[in-house]
Amino acid sequence: MEEVETFEPCSDEHVKEILALDASAHSDWSAISAVTDEEGNTIEVFRQRMDTGLDKLKALVTTVHITADVVHEVLYNIETRVNWDHGGKDMQVVEKIDDELDVIYFWAKAPPTFTNREFLQSRLTRTLDDGTRVIIYRSVKHDKFPEKPKKFVRAYTKLSGYVIKPNPSGEGCRVTFLSQNDIKASIPSMDTGLDKLKALVTTVHITADVVHEVLYNIETRVNWDHGGKDMQVVEKIDDELDVIYFWAKAPPTFTNREFLQSRLTRTLDDGTRVIIYRSVKHDKFPEKPKKFVRAYTKLSGYVIKPNPSGEGCRVTFLSQNDIKASIPSWVVNLLASFFMKKWLNTLRDACNNQLKENAKAKE
């Protein structure tokens, strides 16, 4: 079922929701990675458990001003394909069965921190009566190429291939690439839309009140958090609730994203501090489609919980956004993991600076 975007402000209901998610993140979710800095502060990234089964069938269609026979030759001939298709490494014919059928092997480089994937496929080519050329791939097993679990993850291809159909005009052809694979294990799919809820958890040797001040005070946050550009309070509604705006720089070739969020802060009876964000609409900040893509925040925020020992606190950052359009989710996850330790160090430094400022204010 497609996720329905809602834009009501943060409320008590969302406080309960984020606290429940904070609790479940440590027991029910999948840990992605963890680091510890030189001072012993730890940070972990969790993701709601994802189905790693077969992807939905995807199709990529293009029209080219080249004959179907030439396109087929370029795609099918491995001896020449290795010179231009750098996505498939060590591509080779394992066994030629007949003029239409063979078995091929290649491996593909995965994003950093993930294991490379290998493919062993039966490949069938055929020319139909109307001149359409097809190349079809399906996973097989072969004695010459057993799996290499220490080096690769063996992906599974249910059905992939090309349909190369001559145009009725006789000029050029239409090429459809179909792909349905299970890439196994933990590489997120490239589907866009609402991300799975993620949690980033860190333990710091600083009080919950100081961490809350550092994360909540926009006037000082802009000095250390360079991820949010032009961060500002759009409207202050009461002591707990306001509306904020910022934009974030996207990876090269992608459009920058902007966020307009309702922000709620609250202190619970046990000293836990929460900051919650949800997308809203506001007359002062209409969307700027020529300059930004407006991202949608279903629920994000911080749960800052004092340690029972009285020393320091545990900070959980929860995030669930639809960044819209064409940035693949694996790019977002990869960048988040890459900057994880940097974020921890920056937060720690900002908290230490806040402690110094607080000490000066008392003098």
From TrEMBL:
Matches recorded under InterPro entries? START-like_dom_sf, START_lipid-bd_dom, START_lipid_transfer
Name all START domain ranges: 15-188, 196-356
Against PROSITE patterns, the record matches this protein to:
START
Q: Origin organism of this chain?
A: Acanthamoeba castellanii (strain ATCC 30010 / Neff)
Coiled coil region boundaries: none
Listed GO MF terms: lipid binding
Q: Name one GO cellular component term.
A: cytoplasm
Please report a single Pfam family linked to this protein.
START
Give the protein name, as stated in the record: START domain containing protein
Gene3D superfamilies, per the entry: 3.30.530.20
